[in-house]
Amino acid sequence: MLAAAVKDTSATAAKNHQPSAKSGTGGAAEGPKHRSYADRDPVVPSVGGPRGEPLPAGAGGLPAADVAGADHPCARAVPQGQLPGRPRHPLRERPVRHRRCVRDERRHEPLPQRGEARARARDGDGAVRAARGRGGPPAGAALGAELAEARAPPHLHRRQDREEAGGAHRQGRHPARAGVPTGVSLNHCAAHFTPNCGTDEKIVLDYDDVMKIDFGTQINGRIIDCAWTVAMNEGKYENLLRAVRESTYEGVKQAGIDVRLCDVGAAIEEVMESYEVEINNKVYPVKSIRNLTGHNIAPYVIHGGKSVPIVKGGEQTKMEEGELFAIETFGTTGRGYVAEEGDCSHYMMVPGGETMPLRSERASALLKHIHQNYNTLAFCRKWLDRAGEDRHLLALNQLCEAGAVHKYPPLCDVRGCYTAQVEHTILLRPTAKEVLSKGDDY
Hints:
Layout: H1 2-16, H2 73-77, H3 114-123, H4 126-132, H5 145-150, H6 159-170, E1 176-186, E2 189-191, E3 210-219, E4 222-231, H7 238-254, H8 261-272, E5 276-279, E6 282-285, E7 287-288, E8 294-297, E9 307-308, E10 324-332, E11 339-340, E12 346-349, H9 361-373, E13 378-380, H10 381-386, H11 393-402, E14 405-408, E15 411-412, E16 419-428, E17 433-435
Antiparallel strand pairs: 1-3, 2-15, 3-4, 5-6, 7-10, 8-9, 8-10, 10-16, 11-15, 12-13, 12-14, 16-17
Helix pairs in contact: 7-8, 9-11
Catalytic activity: Release of N-terminal amino acids, preferentially methionine, from peptides and arylamides
Binding site for a divalent metal cation 2: 225, 295, 328, 423
Subcellular location: Cytoplasm
């Protein structure tokens, strides 16, 4: 019975859909009673070309827009079906876990207006804007060694900024100038070397030398510290340079609010010591220099009191919101430990050192010059020579013996080894960390 019903229904449907024998110009009324309104519209080809021309038909009668052949713009942009990956940057802003929803110092502040809140989130306070450089190139990026020391970086563009900077300079606040002497440490010397006037100026850079360029700039005491390593024979030391670069990036990646400093050091050491370098047919493991560290930066003080180790087992102290940190790593083919060696070139006045009583008038005059021009910022002997303070070594040693000034001699590993360094300065913001020393070319 079911088969007979299906057969009968099919026969009826076929009979109803047959065209009428009387259909013609006047037989339209005897055709199907209900027709689609789309039948009344003319057939227009798809328009998709750049000049409005119809797209050619593709496989199976489909338009070419549906069958992306070799001539399709998408196919030309992505050859062989290789889709481009998402752009990645090891120093992009990364969200930071923030457990304190309301900081103590902001708890009793009035709620800002919507525009003020956006501006604060974007630019931060005045100290942060000074550290960024007011829209100029990042402090510490793309400045030559002598250029960084000879003049202030071009951060002050507006007339108001220049006037404020001039007033600050007259008050001894040093608005924009070199923050630390430019270090050009060679080979086994890891840090704290810049040529003194005299015999050091005869040093010539050789093709096989490895040189660490370490310097910083500052505006109103906000210091940006950075470093990188230059090797003319880059292929020879490729893995050594890569080890310190990747270790520094790993340190930046691990840093954040409430992160323990020891955890950052452990991550840095793991990356650093995963590399080895072959030099003159001999393989050397790359080691972290365990008695050199990164550090936080305070206003007018390059080392603010917290150290960021580059080996495991460091301090349990945590990073905090708003802090400025210099993440720097040192790799070596030597023993992994540095000691003071050679003539000192780097010095720094201790906080309050300008008030210390001195018996020598020459030492007192030199201390006054240091306080007025550098305050607690680091300086070097050749800066004193340029300022007309010649024959200053005896008075400078007296200041060091009195405790008003600290000396920082060159730090060296064993002779014959090679050391490398990379450093960046980061700011811990509430929801991200910002790399202040990163430029297009560094």
